[in-house]
Amino acid sequence: MTDYKYIGKRSVRIDGLAKVTCTAQYTDDLEFGPNLLHIAVLSSPYAHARILSIDTSEAESIPGVKAVISGRDFSQKFGLYLKDHSIFPADRVRYVGEQVAAVVATSEKIAKTAIKKIKVDYEPLQNVQCALDAIKKDAILIHPDLGNYEVVPWLYPQAGTNIGHIRKIRKGNIEKAFAEADYILEDQYHVPHVVHAPLENHIAVALYDYEGRLTMWNSTQSPHTQRNILASCLKIPHKNVRIIAPYVGGGFGGKAGISMEVIAAVAALKVQGHYVKLRWNRKEEFENSSQRQELFAKIKMGVKKDGTIVALRHKLFWDVGSSAEYGSNVVNATGFSAIGPYNIPNVHIDSYAIYTNRPPCGAYRGFGYSEFHFGLESHIDRIAKKLNIDAVEFRKKNAIKRGDKVAYGVEMGPTGLMECIEKVAKKIEWGKETKSDDPDKIRAKGFSIVWKAPAMPPNESSAAFLKFSEDGSINILVSGMELGQGYLTSMAKIAAEELSIPLEKIRVEHPDTDRNPYEWQTVASHTTWSSGNAVRKAAIEAKNRIFDTVSRALHYPKEALYLEDEKVKCKEDSKFELPLRDFVINGIQMKDGTFRGGPIMGTGIFMPEFSSAKVNPETGQGGYPNVHYTTGAGAVEIEIDKKTGRIKVLKMAEAFDGGKILNPELAEGQIIGGFMQGLGTALWEEVKFDENGKILNPNFTDYKIPTALETPDEMYPIFVEVPQPDGPYGARGIGEHTMIPVMPAVGNAIANGLGIRLKEVPFTPEKILDALEEKGK
Amino acid sequence: MSSFDYFSPKTLEEAVQLYNEHSASARLLLGGTDLVNMINDEMIKTNAVIDLKNIAYLKQLELKDNHLYIGADVTFTELIESDIIREKFPVIWESSRKVASMGIRNRATIVGNICSSVPSADSAPALLIRETIVRVMSVNGKREIDIADFFIGPRKNALKENEIVINLKIPVLNKSFGGSYVKMGRYKGEDLAQVGVATLVTEDLQYRIAYCAVSPKPIRIKKAEQLLNGREFSVEFLKDVDTEIMNAISPIGDIRASKSYREKMSSVLLEKSLIASYSRLKGNKPEYGKELL
Question: Is the CB of residue A245 less than 8 Å from the CB of residue A6?
């Protein structure tokens, strides 16, 4: 194994000091002077209604109001993959909370007062609140113009229906396999909508200046993608759109792509020369950023007596809400991967994006994998039990291995899945029973295994620019976002390793699309891999320039030079050492007084050139849609109070194959954070709607995200390192994956402890008691 | 958010005078953890906010003449950090620790909690079982209200329009006892009670039982207490006690819990609370403050 100096070593995050001392600036911390204008947004009270007229005259007459905007001014549609989302709807609203109009005023108070003076005449339409209703033949159409929307070539909106996309997989002979199976289990599972709940709500500041430049300061995961969407939607040259992205106080996918930022952008166009600010409150954050898709999954699985899985039919009915502009790719990605981390020869998958009159849905940590793993991993446990095979053994028997064919026919890459399973089973003491002293309390364990691939267009890419200063310190310019996951530290470590420079002499800059090179988005757990590769290439390029300079000036053979402790050294001359700070800007002076060299810098780009989304739409075969899979396993030990139905997690263990863990401390943080986020969705979180599409719990009083008090007493993050051949030092992503095992592991533990199977999350105490009562009958 | 006048009186006399002048829509400010949110969310409109935090008298927390006095401006954190509360009023101590989160407890006051008079007020059951007197003042003078008569309905109490609660007066129990407060929220972190129950058992086997969140107002259930009075505690008595509890409570079903779950938990929590209280009376564990769910 290579001995690294920085990679894989524990170190404090480089943004830690700024964050704990409150000098880290978030968008709302930035000052824009006394002339800053404020935006308030009028939202729809209806889930589905025609807009007959909008009268803004009274709002416009209020002193301090600078502009009132609505679908009359900006009705353009935008979207990442499918352009189905209006900046302001011109003709109809599709969910409660949809932005109908906005006021720009000299104060927040005036803007909010003026909003109430806008008169909108609506004609309510029938609204659809459930995906299973929306796909019925007679359902009212939410996007009657679906057939006319712009869409990427690998998505298939079904005009004349409420289906935004279908991803189909056909592999092997499913009917024959079911006919030959010894046991078949068929059932349905349900995962409701949840929200990202970042502690920093969405916020955007925009300026459209008299040079025709649109500059924005946004809390975002996607500065370049936002620039691209805004430039093409508003017909402004890309060079004239600039997105600056300060620190982000929580993203989880909710700040991927674009949402409310479009409102701030068009407001700025209306009041040229003024800064405008839009900041969601918590209720708006629930109603009008994005949510996680709701899933109704129908699973039919066939197995042989010995436990070999022979067939899987997986139908995924996703409620993508009123817009599938981003969520359609969740549907697509999970369609390709809904076999889970198993080797299954015969597969039939249909993954549907279904419109309803609920808020738009999009990326959420796990990108749909948490939702389908819940059903699949519950199903696996039930089948293992039926065959009287231990749940862990059953998984080991069927776990996918390197070289097995995944659902779309490509060979599985290197994976440490088996080692993850074994390590988690050992740590959770699988098979060993424990008892509570309290007779009301039952202890039980649950297990699950997972996989996930980055869901990206095949031509996603990352770029990096690295430059030296006189003292031998460096600045790295990249456009990935630090979301708490440790991106800045990882990138610094890669440069440190390549250039032998200590972390304290490296700065990694936040994105500014004018200055920092391209990054697709900080999503898909792909930045360590993708942006990491770009940074590594930039560092190697800079290193080559260093050696080139030294070789030209001092005539050492280039291939004999190496870097150590911020110095250039030579394998052939042990006495030679030249500190980087002596020449990385000013060059090396020759005997005649002239200089060689000049400022050292490096650039690097990365694109997975082997990836392709071109597949047969009827079978999903023929392309290379996913670059790789990260695999892992998770388990919990829980204690259930039979009298109250409450669940306490006593212990958790999760293992992931990160290929190469660049920074163990922050990677462990990902496992603990991801586990807790997963636990939230397993036990408490659910957006509740009334029959008219109004959210009943758009606040933290009634939408419960876990607090520090809910953390288990014992938590064991474990890493396995089977290198990713094209990853930096072998690394692949683990960020999202860490929350995927939790829902099924907890559900399986409940089943093991109480003999009841809950097929719907969250596992509330009431559901536990109801199921116990049902079982007792 | 509408505009309002802000007053910051230095004396009680000045405060009651101001409140009397503006009473119709004036609001009193102490911790502000309820009031400020309601103003921001436009749930209430007010033309005058009277800030009572500068009246030194309201910071009183002392034992005097065999009574504990808790001033209106005493926060939950101050109660939790008080040795008097911890030693002599352990159920108030235990329930104070269950209120909201640390940040809220640092500002919120126990008097504010009862003045909000929400059915789920965490401090109410503990105050009910200690037979607290609520002392109020207005331009017409002072009067005392038994806490059992203080709550009237959701967000309604016995205060007249111009009355200010100045402190709580709680008799010291001159005999040994065990007590407990058991709160069921959706999780351990900050939450409103779905069901809360406080019980007390004295050395002469007198029982006291009070609930929050299971009827329009926090209630004490004397009929249930009478079934236990004079008897060494045994879970066998609970069946009869339960009948009285079910007669007395009338929980609603809402987004936080169904009616039937609240009913079931009213029994389950009572059992847990009585077991803990009786055990504490006998000098046994669980210690006060220990998780009872």
Answer: no
* Inter-chain touch B189–A707, beta carbons under 8 Å: yes
Q: What is the pLDDT of residue A1?
A: 57
CA distance B158 to chain A (A): 27
* Domain-located, residue A733: yes
Residue in B1, B192, B265 closest to A644 by CB: B265
Token pair recorded at residue A19:
């964050």
User: Is residue A317 classed as helix, strand or coil in its secondary structure?
Assistant: strand
Do residue A704 and residue B188 have CB atoms under 8 angstroms apart? no
Distance CA B147, CA B214 (A): 17
pLDDT at B214 over 60: yes
| Interacting residues of A34 by C-beta distance below 8 A, sequence separation 6+ | none
Residues A392 and A528 both lie in one domain: no
For residue A420, what are its two tokens? 């993850």
Residue from B215, B34, B256 nearest B125 by CA:
B215
Residues (pLDDT < 70) of chain A are 1
User: For residues A727 and B223, what is the distance between their CA atoms, to the nearest angstrom?
Assistant: 72
Class assignment of domain B177-281? alpha beta
Residue A566 phi/psi, 5° resolution?
A: 65, 25
Asked whether residue A712 falls in the same domain as residue A630, the answer is yes
**Domain ranges, ordered by start, for chain B:** 5-51, 56-171, 177-281
E strand or H helix that includes residue A373: helix A369-386
Instruction: Please list every residue in chain A whose beta carbon sits closer than 8 Å to the beta carbon of residue B290.
Output: none
Please state which of the four CATH numbers 1.10.8, 3.30.70, 3.40.50, 3.30.43 is assigned to the domain occupying B5-51.
3.30.43
Q: Which two tokens stand for residue A414?
A: 């290197």
Range of the domain at A764: 294-456+613-776
ipTM of the complex in this document: 0.95
Taking the CA atoms of residue A522, residue A527, residue A531 and residue A533 in that order, the dihedral angle to the nearest 10 degrees is -170
Q: Cα B259 vs. chain centroid, distance in angstroms?
A: 22
B56-171 adopts what CATH topology?
A: 3.30.465
Task: Decide: A661 and A722 in contact? Cβ < 8 Å.
Answer: no
Based on the number of CB atoms within 10 Å of its own CB, is B165 exposed (0-12), middle (13-18) or buried (19 or more)? buried
- Mind listing the pLDDT tens digit for each residue in A72-82? 999 999 999 99
Q: Where are the alpha helices (DSSP H) in chain B?
A: 12-22, 35-40, 76-80, 83-88, 90-96, 102-105, 110-116, 123-129, 147-150, 222-228, 238-248, 259-281
Per DSSP, the three-state class of A26 is: strand
Residue A588's φ and ψ, nearest 5 degrees, are -110, 130
In a domain, A239, yes or no: yes
Of the residues B39, B188, B260, B271, the best mutation for testing chain A's interface (the one with the most A CB atoms within 10 Å of its CB) is B188
The sheet that has A49-55: what strands, in order across it?
A: A92-93, A49-55, A119-124
d(CA B4, CA A450): 56
Are B255 and A697 within 8 A, CB to CB?
Answer: yes
Q: What is the pLDDT of residues B156-191, one digit of tens each?
A: 999 999 999 999 999 999 999 999 999 999 999 999
Sort A644 into a burial class: Cβ within 10 Å, 0-12 / 13-18 / 19+. buried
* Listed residues A606, A626, A654: the one ending a domain: A606
Q: How many angstroms separate the CA atoms of B286 and A519, rounded?
A: 57
CB contact A614 to B (< 8 Å): no
Among the listed ranges A348-357, A465-474, B18-27, B61-70, which one has the minimum average pLDDT value?
B18-27
pTM of the model: 0.97
Same domain, A443 and A478: no
Backbone angles phi, psi at A375, to 5 degrees: -65, -50
Classify strands A37-43 and B151-153 as parallel, antiparallel or unpaired.
unpaired
Distance between CA atoms of A476 and A531, rounded to whole angstroms?
A: 12
